[in-house]
Specification:
InterPro entries: P-loop_NTPase
Number of domains: 2
Number of helices: 16
Oligomer: single chain
Largest sheet: 2 strands, parallel
Strand content: under 5%
Radius of gyration: 22 Å
Helix content: 40-55%
Keywords: Plasmid
Number of strands: 4
Length: about 325
């Protein structure tokens, strides 16, 4: 992927090929300053690179990425992607690792906070909508759904389990430390407050790196991992019953189970505010200010010291455009 000028993100590379130029305008590319013409050029460059690579290899190829089951990957787009890939393969096989909703919602909430979520809403995963198109297009015998539960994975490890599915000896794989671990609960609350206050990074090629650096600084507040209160999780899981029943055709595992009780449990917007305020001493040390903030507004100002090249959008712009690049463009036009 690096040879195409694209970050090593298989999902994005595949999504570029699944979408028509008219369906493009991917926000993650707009954040890097790419306009429609730049996105079209990247799509063409990625396609040429991938076709050249696939044309000269006879090995089995693994294409991985969470984005392959994202909301943008509708059945027609999956079909378009498969039609493009078909000349290079004699068959396709899809493997999906499915996390239980009570576990997945905690991870997704944190990820959406990273992506500017500013409302206390629990993400809902429509498992059937995401997975059934692959079953319909490839056939049930070419789709494997595995529970993302340690005690149901070969060797208790997803990489070893996947190797086993491929007929490889997973025991020979070198264990790696956990990757992409979640943020401390306090950092999630601070970043969520940042979003609610309409603070955003100015778009540009360096914007993703600057935001990652800012989030890494917030993570230094430390503390326990983020979690939701068990009654809230129980209600969330109960609302996914139809999807879980559909998954039951494929997965013989307790997908409705709740995770162990977290040290930090959030149930309301007020809980998020209180959690953010509890980080005032740690944030003061990071921002190197004379005193800790006593209110949410003060926390926002201290975080601003850690994040140059950011602006605070007026509430009316956030209401009209959300926290996306359209709102930033409208803000800059008013200056």
């Amino acid at each position: 992927m690096a040879d195409t000028g694209l970050a090593p993100n298989h999902s994005l590379a595949m999504l570029l090929q699944a979408l028509t130029p008219e369906e493009g305008k991917l926000e993650q590319l707009a954040k890097q300053g790419l306009d429609a013409a730049g996105e079209a050029a990247l799509r063409d460059r990625t396609r040429r690179h991938l076709e050249a690579f696939l044309s000269r290899t006879t090995q089995d190829i693994i294409i991985s990425g969470e984005g392959l089951t994202s909301g943008r990957m509708t059945a027609p787009r999956i079909a378009r992607l498969l039609d493009w890939l078909a000349p290079f393969f004699d068959r396709f096989r899809a493997v999906a690792y499915v996390r239980p909703p009570a576990d997945l919602v905690v991870s997704m909430f944190q990820q959406r906070v990273r992506n500017r979520l500013d409302r206390f809403t629990l993400p809902v995963v429509a498992y059937r909508d995401k997975l059934e198109p692959w079953v319909q297009l490839l056939g049930a015998d070419q789709v494997v759904l595995r529970p993302y539960l340690r005690d149901h994975l070969v060797g208790g490890d997803v990489v070893r389990d996947f190797a086993h599915l491929l007929g490889l000896d997973g025991a020979r794989l070198r264990a790696l430390p956990p990757q992409n671990t979640g943020l401390p609960a306090g950092a999630v609350a601070l970043l969520y407050l940042w979003n609610r206050q309409g603070r955003v990074f100015l778009p540009g090629p360096d914007a993703p790196r600057r935001k990652r650096k800012f989030i890494a600084r917030l993570a230094q507040v430390g503390g326990p991992s983020f979690g939701f209160a068990r009654p809230l999780l129980a209600r969330h899981v109960a609302g996914r019953r139809a999807d879980l029943d559909w998954l039951g055709q494929w997965i013989e595992a307790p997908m409705d189970q709740l995770p162990p009780e977290a040290a930090c449990q959030v149930a309301t917007q007020e809980d998020m505010d209180a959690l953010a305020l509890a980080q005032a001493p740690a944030l003061q040390a990071l921002a190197q200010t004379p005193a800790p903030a006593r209110a949410l507004e003060g926390l926002g100002r201290q975080m601003q010291r850690l994040a140059p090249h950011t602006v605070r959008l007026p509430p009316e712009l956030v209401q009209a455009h959300g926290l996306g690049n359209e709102a930033v463009a409208a803000y800059l036009a008013q200056r």
